[in-house]
User: What shape does this take?
Amino acid sequence: MGAKEAARRRWAALGWAYGLLLAFGVFFVAPFVMGFLASLKTDPLEWPFRLAFSQVSPKNWAAAWRLGQAGSGDPWLGGMRPGRQVALEVVYFVPRGVEPTLLAEIPRRKPGAGMGAVFETPYASDHVTLEGPIPLERRPAHQEEGEIIRYRLVLRYQGEGPFLERVPLDLEAPRGMVLVEATLDPTRFERRGRVASWDNVTPGLLGYVFHNYVRAFRETRSLETGESLFLRWTLNSFFIAFLKVLTTLVFASMAGYALARLRFPGRQALFLFMLFTMMVPGQVTFISNYLVLRDGIFGLSKLFGVETLLNTYTGLILSGLVGASAVFIMKQFFESIPREVEEAALIDGATPLQTLFRIVLPMSTPALGALAILTFQGTWNEFFWPFIVLTSPREIYTLPIGLLSFRNAYGQVGDWGLILAGGFFSMIPILILFAVFQRYFVEGVNVGAVKE
Amino acid sequence: MRIKARTLEALYALLLLLPFLFSLGVFFLYAFLRAVYFSFTDYNLFSPPRWVGLANYWALFQEPSFLLALKHTLLYSLVVTSLQTFFALILAIALNRPLRGITFFRTVYYLPSVISTAAASLLLLWLFQRTGLVNQALSLLFSHLPHLAGFALLFLGLQGALVLWERRRGRRTPFLDPGLAAVSLLGAFLGTSAFQAWGLLQAREVRVDIPWLPTRASFLGLPYPLWAIVLMNTYTTIPTFMVLFLAGLKGIPRTLYEAAALDGATPWIMFSRITVPLLRPVLFLVITLGLIGTLQLFDQVLFVGGSGGAPLESTITLAYYVYGNVFPSGATPRVGLASAAALVLAGLTLVIVLLQRRFGVGERGWS
Assistant: This one.
C-alpha cells in the first residue's frame, strides 16, 4: 500500500468518524428539538408532524408584534386596553356560485381548561365591538373559477373597562370558501375548516410564538390568591437550590477538610461508612426521615413553636444539609493540595479552622465552583424527596413537583402544548448553566462515578 | 491544664464534622436502622409499631404486586443496562480516533443527562402518545422499507463490485474500506433517488398506531409503558456512557494495536483480546452505574401513570411499591411491608456493588 493510498484511507476514515458523530448528534438531539417545536404549536400531537407551522413564520411574528402594539402598547405580550383599536385583514377564495357571507364574532370563550378554568376573567365580547367584515377588494381568480375577496375587520375597545389579556375571534364562512391569507394565521380551523378561529388577535410576539409558555404562567394560578403558581414554583426552586448550594459548600468543605487533613479516632471507619451511605437507595431512609420531619426532629422544633417540619423549607434544607458525595468531592480535592502550603500556617500557630478558611478555601475556588454547579443541578432536578416533604399547599411546590401536578391536571384533557411548555421552561436554567460551565458537568461524571 | 495536641486536633475535627455527622446520623444511620426495625414490625405511621418478626418478608414474596414490581425492576434494569452498555461501547469504539472538536460533540451528547427526570418524563409522555413522534417515526420508517432495502442492496452491490475491482488490480483492500464505502454510499443514495423518480420504488401507506401507555399488553415480559421508558432512558444514557468509554479507550496505548497488527491480528481479535480486557474497569463501572441507576426507577413511573396514562400494574417498580405502601391513596399505610421491600432493593444494590468491587475496579482505576 502506497503512502498516497494510506492517506486516502485515513481521510475517508476521518470523514466517516465525523459523519457518524454528526448523525449521532442529530439523532440524539432531534427529540428535544422536536419537543421544543411542538411546545410552540397549538396542537403538538398533529399527524403528520409539520416543521413549518404558523408560530415559526416571520410574517406572523411581525403581525403579532404590530397587533400587540396596537392593542395595548405592549408588542411582547399584547392584550387590549380601553380606547385602542386593532385591524385585521383576511383574504378568502370564493368559488363561483357560492354566496360570500362571512360571519365574524368575538366568542365567549373561557381561557383554557384545567387549573385556569376556575377564575373569573372578563370576556372580551363584553367590551370590544367588532366592525366588519368589510369587503375591500374583489378580483377574479383561477381563470374565472371564482374570486378573491379581501376583508377588513376592525376591533374597537371604547369607553372604560378592564385590561383584556386576550381577544378571541371566530370567522365562519360557507362551505367552499377558503381562507387564503390573513394578517395573522388563525390558531385553528373548526367544523371542517369552515370556522377559522383565533385564540387571541392581539397576542404580541411572545404571546404568539410562545403562547403555551405564556399560558403556563397565566393559567396555573393559585385558587386562594390568584397569583401565578408556575412563577412561584420557579422562584421556590431557585430559593431552595440557592440555600442548598450555600449549606453544601460550607459544610462539605468543613467535613472534607477534617477527613482529608485532621487525625481523629474512627476516621477510616467514617470514610467507609460515608461510601456505604452513597450506595443505599433513598427509598430505604425516606420513611424514617418523613417521620423525623413530621415530629419536628425529635420534637426539637417545638421549642421554636413549630409543630412539624413537613411542608416547610426548613425541613427540606435541614434534612439535606450536606450530602456524602459533596464531602467526598471536597476531601479528594483537599488531598490534592500540597501539604507544605498549610504547614507554614500551622507553624505560625493557626488553628485548623483558620487554616481552612484563610488559606485552603481561597485556593479551592475551582472545586467549590464545580461543587456549587453540581449541587444546583442536583437540587433543581431533585424529585423524590421534595415530593414526599412538600405536599400542600400547592404554593410551596418546587418546579419538578409542579410539573407532576401539571401533568395530572392537563394530561387527561390532552393539553400537550401546556405540558411540554412547562417541561421545557424548567430546563432553561440548567441549559444556561450547562452552556456556560459544561466542563464541570462532563467532568462531574468522574465524581458521580464514585458517588452512585 | 493543657490539652494534648492530639485531643485538640480531634476536637477540631469534631467541630468541623458536626453538621455532616448530624446529617449522617439523623437522616441516614438512624433512618437506616429504623427501616430495618420497621421491616420486622406491623406499622401504619400512627399507632405504635408491633413486632412481627420475619412476617413482612414472608408476606412480600406472597404478594403478587411485589413480585410483579420485582420482576419489572430486574428486567428493566437488565434490559436498559445491556442496551446502553452495548451501544455506548460500539459507538465509542467507532469514534475512538484523535478527532478535532470531539469536545464539542461530547458536550452535545452529554446534554440529555443534565435534564431533570421530571422534564424528560414529560417529553417521554409526549413522544409516546398515540399520534406522538415515535409512532410517526415508525410509520415513516415502515412506509419507506422498500427504499431502505433498495439502498442497502445497492450499497452492498456497489461496495462488492468496487472491492473486487480493486483486488483484481492487485491491492489488498478490506471489504469495509472507508474510502470505497463513501463512494458506494453516495452511489446508493443517488441510485435510490433515481429509482424513486422513475417510480420503481414507492413509499407504502403504513400507519403505526401502537398505544404505548394506556395498555396492559406486554412484550418479552415487560409491559409496553415500561418499554417506552426503556427506550427513552437508553436513549438519554447512551451518550453519557459513550463519553466514559471514550475516556477509557484513550488510556489504551496505540502501540498495542500496532504490535497486534504486525502479528496479523484481525479486528475481532484486537477487540476481544486488547480492547475489552483493558477496558474492563470502565466496563464494570458503566455496568454498575447502569444497574444501580435503573434499579431505583421511580419518577418516570409516577409521570407515565396517572390520569390518562399507564395502568399501575404495567409500570409498578420496587421503588414505586415502597412509596405506594407508605402513602397509599385511601388505605392504611403498610410501613413494615414497605420497609422490607426497600431493604430488598438496597440488598440488590449492595450485591451489585460488591460484585463490582470483587471483579471490577477500585475507585477511579479507569481514568
About this structure: The radius of gyration of chain B is 27 Å.
